[in-house]
């Protein structure tokens, strides 16, 4: 199939350089404003396109795919997480799915550390004192946080991003612990000086900081449920730059309010943009609007990956970043 004949629909505005390159290569329909597509627009897109380029804000479920036209052959996701795409149904319908792994690893790991430090060192509280003009000068007991060096960091999900977090946290003098579906190879584990916990319960109970870095799948939904959250030390801090659904957000909010967990740094939420006001008002919580991978460089590289996946497919091969059911 010659690539110039392929019709590509991109569901969101992407960086200009990415859009320009896609336009050069394909017969493309681009979005003309910054809003996500409505369900009706998405339904229309899957009916007519050969290739769809969605983002995390598009729900590509079985019902939507049931209305897909016979031309739709590739969903080239702009992002690494594919929990918004029903990959199994796509496969049954002969539609390939690809993602953009690797290029947002470092940026997301950096943001994990930023949140970890923001919560433990009370950065937003300091910022607010300065912005409100309330600073009364240095005082020996003002805004004391906790030292991160020496603390135990438990990483839940030791894939690319988890390992990048481990490397950074080691440089801050933290002790690295992890729980993962599969134990890392001994040489990788040794390189990261990471201690493996087969039992998530036992790890949760012993950590000073818990960082969620696993994908959201049916088996990780509410992995940190109310029972497990209650195992955390009251002095412990939770950081999540992965997906909100991995944590029972209501249970976490109750515990944060009651002081049963010391704090949380969150970039993602269980119900997307709907962030509970209870969470918003807490001083021991730092909230960001899903910015983990939001660097100019990362967004361009994500675009390059999407283009490589589409071009390779158009040239008659499997996209290099094909996702198969159960892989993530
Ligand atoms: C992206 C992400 O910005 O790639 C992911 O899985 O969560 C984000 O950091 C987003 O997915 C873009 O679609």
Q: How would you describe this structure to a colleague?
A:
Its EC number is 1.1.1.29. One of its GO terms (cellular component) is cytosol. Residues 113-292 form the D-isomer specific 2-hydroxyacid dehydrogenase NAD-binding domain. It is built from 13 helices and 12 strands. Strands 8-7-6-9-10-11-12 form a 7-stranded parallel sheet, sandwiched between helices. The chain has a 5-stranded parallel sheet with strand order 2-1-3-4-5, with helices on both faces. The chain has 328 residues and is of the alpha/beta class. It has helices spanning 16-25, 39-48, 62-66, 87-92, 105-120, 123-132, 160-171, 186-192, 200-206, 226-229, 249-258, 277-280, 296-314; strands at residues 7-10, 27-29, 51-53, 74-76, 96-98, 152-156, 175-179, 194-196, 209-212, 237-240, 263-266, 285-287. It has 2 domains: 3-102 and 295-314, 3-Layer(aba) Sandwich (Rossmann fold); 105-287, NAD(P)-binding Rossmann-like Domain (Rossmann fold), CATH 3.40.50. The protein binds 2-keto-D-gluconic acid. The site of 2-keto-D-gluconic acid has 9 residues, from loops. Residues 55-56, 78-81, 104, 292-293 line the site of 2-keto-D-gluconic acid (8YV).
Task: Give a brief description.
This protein has 328 residues and is an alpha/beta fold. It has helices spanning 16-25, 39-48, 62-66, 87-92, 105-120, 123-132, 160-171, 186-192, 200-206, 226-229, 249-258, 277-280, 296-314; strands at residues 7-10, 27-29, 51-53, 74-76, 96-98, 152-156, 175-179, 194-196, 209-212, 237-240, 263-266, 285-287.
């Amino acid at each position: 199939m010659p690539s110039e004949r392929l019709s590509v629909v991109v569901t969101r505005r992407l960086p200009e350089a990415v859009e320009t390159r896609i336009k050069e290569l394909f017969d493309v329909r681009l979005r003309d404003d910054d809003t996500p597509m409505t369900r009706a627009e998405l339904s229309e897109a899957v009916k007519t396109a050969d290739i769809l380029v969605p983002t995390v804000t598009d729900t590509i479920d079985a019902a939507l795919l049931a209305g897909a036209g016979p031309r739709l052959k590739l969903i080239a996701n702009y992002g690494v997480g594919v929990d918004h795409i029903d990959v199994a149904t796509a496969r049954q319908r002969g539609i390939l799915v690809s993602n953009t792994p690797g290029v947002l690893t470092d940026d997301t790991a950096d943001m994990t550390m930023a949140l970890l430090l923001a919560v433990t060192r009370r950065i937003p509280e300091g910022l607010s004192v300065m912005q409100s003009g309330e600073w009364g000068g240095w005082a020996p007991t003002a805004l004391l946080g906790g030292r991160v060096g020496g603390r135990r960091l438990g990483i839940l999900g030791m894939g690319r991003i988890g390992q990048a977090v481990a490397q950074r946290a080691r440089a801050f003098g933290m002790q690295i612990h992890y729980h993962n579906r599969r134990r890392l190879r001994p040489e990788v584990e040794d390189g990261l000086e990471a201690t493996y916990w087969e039992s998530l319960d036992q790890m949760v109970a012993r950590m000073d900081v818990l960082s969620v870095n696993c994908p959201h799948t049916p088996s990780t939904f509410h992995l940190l449920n109310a029972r497990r959250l209650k195992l955390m030390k009251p002095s412990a801090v939770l950081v999540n730059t992965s997906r909100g659904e991995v944590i029972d957000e209501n249970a976490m909010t109750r515990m944060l309010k009651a002081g049963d967990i010391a704090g949380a740094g969150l970039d993602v939420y269980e119900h997307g943009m709907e962030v509970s006001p209870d969470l918003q008002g807490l001083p021991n919580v730092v909230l960001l609007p899903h910015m983990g991978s939001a660097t100019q460089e990362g967004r361009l590289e994500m675009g390059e990956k999407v283009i490589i996946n589409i071009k390779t497919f158009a040239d008659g091969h499997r996209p290099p970043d094909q996702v198969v059911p159960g892989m993530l």
